[in-house]
Amino acid sequence: MKKIPLLNSSEFKTLCLLEKGFRYSPYEVQSKAKMQSVFEEEPGDNLDYKHKQALRLSEFDFVIYSDARAQEPLFAIEFDGPHHQFDPEQIERDIRKNRLCHLAQFPVLRITDTELADLDKFTIIEFIILRYRSWQENHNEIQTEISEYVESLSDEQRVELVKDGFADCSIDPKFRFDLRYPFPKTINVVKRLLFQHKIVTIMAESFLRRIMKKENYYLFADVSAYHNNIQFDGHDLVAKSDYVISKSKQPFFGIKTIWSEIDRQNATILKRGSVQFRIRSTLPIVHDYNPAEAPIEYYLRAGEFPVAFQELPGINAFDIANNVSEYLCLKEIEKWAIKNNDTAEQKNQPNRE
Questions:
Q1: Residue 61's domain is classified under what CATH number?
Q2: Among 14, 330, 19, CA closest to 183
Q3: 132 - beta bridge partners?
Q4: Which residue of 166, 183, 231, 321 has the fewest CB atoms within a 10 Å radius of its CB?
Q5: 38 within 8 A of 63, measured Cβ to Cβ
Q6: Considering just the CA atoms, what is the radius of gyration of the chain in Å?
């Protein structure tokens, strides 16, 4: 017989990051919470024996509550190690848990070591927490801003906002929120590229406006992270972002972009590249679903939707993936800059032989 810890190393790291992210907030984090302490079966749920057993015996790795009194459970976070992908029995248990959460309309986020990886001393799970808290605190303010903006427009301008049945992004609260809360370490890389490596990006515009003495720049870089660069692979969402590093033929001060025909004609492309970022997007809630099949096809055949989405207010896999893949592109640009600076310095070193 031997003693075992309550949490493994990854679970303990997750707990530390959750407690850090929810510090000084009304939220409470509890680990190893019994499922039956979070919700209970109701008449009409029609649970079979295995689901009843799962409800009675299963526990969540972490549950986020609305306050320190654990008055209202808001959502759960499960850390999935490799065996959650390869162990058939574990996969079956996970599906039952997912289904119970879906029936209770209780969000559950399944994370892996990807969300715990060190990205400039910050993690994706911290980004998720930041966006969740920020949405709760600021979505009413954003909605008010939109309402005031719409009221300031003429009738013709309001019609243009919903032209062809699509709402303009300026009146989309999620779009405004996403602009306001990018991945926090992105701006750090933008600043290093500008001030240390003299590489201008569109996101550096606000820093350029504050520079008192204008400098001459030659290098500029572009990053594209769009929803149409996203694909699904099983239950994962894979975001692809592209980057281009260019050199202007004349010195400039301000913003240049390779997507501008004028800027493109007066520049030489030094490097092109891309990065991919993978994150869990859906959770299976039925046992006979093959993720190679479109969920709508399963629905038309079986009469129920086979997956639940990993989504919370202020958080969805698309926005997280786009933000992180944009950051990773900028990091690749920074690696290129460091490598080329080192090469240039080596060429300038005097020959000591």
A1: 3.40.1350.10
A2: 330
A3: none
A4: 166
A5: yes
A6: 24
Residue whose entry in the numeric block shows the structure tokens 């892996």: 112
Q: pLDDT of 172-182, one tens digit each?
A: 898 899 889 99
Query: Residue by residue, what is the 3-state secondary structure of 28-58?
Result: EEEEEEEHHHCCCCCCCCCCCHHHHHHHHHC
CB 290 within 8 A of CB 248: no
Query: How far is residue 279 from each of residues 8, 40, 98, 125, 203, measured CA to CA in Å?
Result: 22, 30, 17, 12, 25
Cβ atoms 65, 74 nearer than 8 A:
yes
| Structure confidence by residue, pLDDT tens digits, 261-302 | 999 999 999 999 999 999 999 999 999 999 889 899 999 999
Dist CA 15 CA 61 (whole Å): 9
User: Six-digit token pair at 314?
Assistant: 């202020």
**Domain span at residue 177?**
134-181
C-alpha–C-alpha distance, residues 153 and 217, integer Å: 39
Q: How many Cβ atoms sit within 10 Å of the Cβ of residue 75?
A: 18
Between 225 and 101, where is the model more confident?
101
| For residue 342, pLDDT beyond 70 | no
Q: Looking at the structure, do residues 335 and 198 belong to the same domain, yes or no?
A: yes
Residues above pLDDT 70, as percent of the chain? 95
Provide DSSP, 148-211. Answer: HHHHTS-HHHHHHHTGGG---GGG-HHHHHHHHS--TTHHHHHHHHHHTT-EE-GGGHHHHHT-
The torsion of the CA quartet 316, 321, 327, 332, rounded to 10 degrees, works out to 180
Judge whether 46 lies within some domain. Answer: yes
88's tokens:
């058939």
pLDDT of residue 270: 97
Half-sphere exposure of 285 (CA within 13 A, CB side): 23
CA 85 to chain CA centroid, nearest Å: 21
Query: Cα(270)–Cα(236) distance, rounded to whole angstroms?
Result: 33
Residue 352 has what pLDDT?
Answer: 45
- The residue among 75, 74, 78 whose CA lies nearest residue 61 is 78
Within this chain, do residues 143 and 199 fall inside the same structural domain, yes or no? Answer: no
Identify whether the C-beta of residue 249 lies closer than 8 Å to the C-beta of residue 266: yes
